[in-house]
Amino acid sequence: MYNMLIVDDEQWISQGLATMVKRMECKDIGDIIYKFSGKDGLDAFQQNTIDLILTDICMPEMSGLTFIEAIRKKSDVPIGVISGYEDFVYVDKAYKQGIVGYMLKPIMFEELKEIIDKMISILKRREEEHQWNQKRDTMYTHTLIENKINRFLQLVRQNDESHMSITREMEGIFPFPYYAVGLVKIKKSEHKVVKEIEDEMANIYFEGTKKNVYHMIDYKNDLVIIFNFLEPECYKDVCQYMENLKTFAKDKKEDIVYSISSYMHGFQNIYTLHNEAYEANRYNALIQQDQVIKYGDYAPLKKSGKEDFQNKIKHFQCAVEITDKKAMMGYIDELFTTERLKHYCFSLIEWLYKTTCHVLSQLVQSNEVEMITEDISQFLSIKELRIYLKSWILKNINEKEELNYQSPVELALEFIKHNYHKDISLTYVSNVVSLNYSYFSKLFKEYTGMKFIDYLTQFRLSKAKEMLEDSTWSIEEISKSVGYKNYRHFTTSFKRQYHIKPSEMRKKRQSSGFFNTKNHDAKSI
What sign does the dihedral 499-504-507-511 (CA atoms) show? Predict the structure, then answer.
């Protein structure tokens, strides 16, 4: 609310103006102070927080113009002028001092309300401008610090000693000597979820004056929280903050994993703390402990222990060589469980998974990397990882058995049928069926009467033509769904094949009533 000062040497007028203002029932007006001389008005202005002023022009001792001039040396507070004289010289001088409006006595209610509304409007506009400038400055500072910290992490990772200059700069910004790093990793999510969690952070009270919290998006596009505090005893509050954040964001449907590093003295250790938070987070993502994992709890886990698995891996390798499905499944079920792996660090779990993938690659003759993923970070849990490995084994054993009685071209046609939407080529498919590129190309044309690329194009376009019947698909979605990365290339190919653009074909079918409005649950072809 805004406080108002009324200055008029006639007491009944000052009090009358105050009464009129109160009758307006303006929710923006707070206290109303009235004085009966320019000198007293100036004292009141200096001793109180005054947001808007109404003053008479002609007063003894200190005139209204002198009063306004004195105010203007200190403030640009909105001022409205009242007078019993319609003197242009007075009016002109008052407006040169930046007044909002000028009223002649006797003052009418509507006229007074108009002036006050105008002054309040000016104050609100200034507040909005101030808030915007503050927000802009805060955003600029936040972005600057975020860029500096990401640059620091990059330089340390590259062993570039120039990171020391950033250390000195950041220690001038962060007031306290101790640091810890929290990590909130949101898997398979959009930017809006990160923003929602950042908003939740504003609702969490970080008690005390000995610690600060700062959040940023790091170079891995994850939400990182930097805690800066005065003494080691504050670390327990840092951990509690992360627990509170997890509680606040528990209604988010996305898979979110929380972790917190240990604490260290000096900004130069941010890189180490950042790595600690990530290592603990990656472990927590797989083991799925329903808590914020602290690096201090994670650090004692076994970092060596490959020998614990060597015999099992040898037996697994033998099972793969003879395609013993039961033995392979038993290996996966025995080793890839939370109970078995929770005592090992993430790097050892990752080694075990990659070793398993390498052994499994013997099941297929193709050397294509895509045949099995070695990126453990894509899994949200040990259970999901276990399901993936077992599904992959079953699929590839079945394909291997089918290979014994299917011709290479038949196998290739089956592969195209199920993978036409992917980025496949003659080279890729020839590797799948384990044939030389040139020989496979010759066989394919003899069998189908078409070149491989022509067959693939025709197959994709026929699928696109079918999908045009479904009005819930946009044409751009259709182009991507049948394997075209470039929308224009798809349109050109479609017109070359059917002598009509896909959009025109859709309109033609729609106008003829030949249209299907099935939902997206029927996307698979």
Answer: negative
Q: Are residues 15 and 122 both part of a single domain?
A: yes
120 and 8 share one domain: yes
Half-sphere exposure (Cβ direction) of 208: Cα atoms closer than 13 Å = 15
Residue 143 lies in a domain: no
Structure tokens at 415: 């592969």
* Same domain as 289, residue 345: no
Number of domains present in the structure of the chain: 4
Helix (H, G, I), strand (E, B) or coil at 64: helix
Q: Assess whether 335 and 293 both reside in one domain.
A: no
Say yes or no: 362 and 473 in one domain: no
Q: Same domain, yes or no, for 481 and 422?
A: yes
Rounded CA-CA distance 470/505 in Å is 12
**CA distances for 177 relative to 181, 264, 266, 296, angstroms:** 14, 8, 6, 20
User: Which ranges of 88-234 would DSSP assign to H, the alpha helix?
Assistant: 88-96, 109-157, 163-173, 191-201
Token pair 């949101």: residue: 186
Nearest to 415 by CA among 458, 459, 447: 459
Domain boundary among 298, 328, 352: 298
- C-alpha–C-alpha distance, residues 396 and 382, integer Å: 21
- CA 398 to chain CA centroid, Å, is 42
The answer to whether residue 159 is domain-embedded is: no
Tokens describing residue 78? 């909105």
Domain boundary among 377, 403, 429: 403
Task: Give the range of the structural domain holding residue 477, as residue numbers without chain letter.
Answer: 408-522
Strands 29-35 and 178-187, by their bridges, are: unpaired
Q: d(Cα 3, Cα 32) in Å, to the nearest integer?
A: 6
Helix (H) or strand (E) holding 437: helix 437-448
Could you read off the pLDDT tens digit of each residue along the chain, which spans 525 residues? Answer: 999 999 999 889 988 999 999 888 888 999 999 999 999 999 999 999 999 999 998 888 899 899 999 999 999 999 999 987 766 777 788 888 889 998 888 889 999 999 999 999 999 999 988 888 777 766 667 788 889 999 999 999 999 988 999 999 998 889 999 999 999 988 765 566 777 777 667 656 566 667 888 888 888 888 899 999 999 999 999 999 998 888 877 766 567 888 999 999 999 999 999 999 998 888 876 777 677 888 888 777 777 778 889 899 999 988 888 788 889 999 999 999 988 888 888 888 989 999 999 898 877 755 443 467 778 877 878 888 899 899 888 888 776 665 555 678 888 998 999 899 998 999 999 888 888 888 899 999 999 999 999 999 999 999 999 898 887 889 999 999 999 989 899 999 999 999 999 999 988 887 776 555 443 333 332
At position 136, the amino acid (one-letter code) is: R
d(CA 347, CA 249): 29
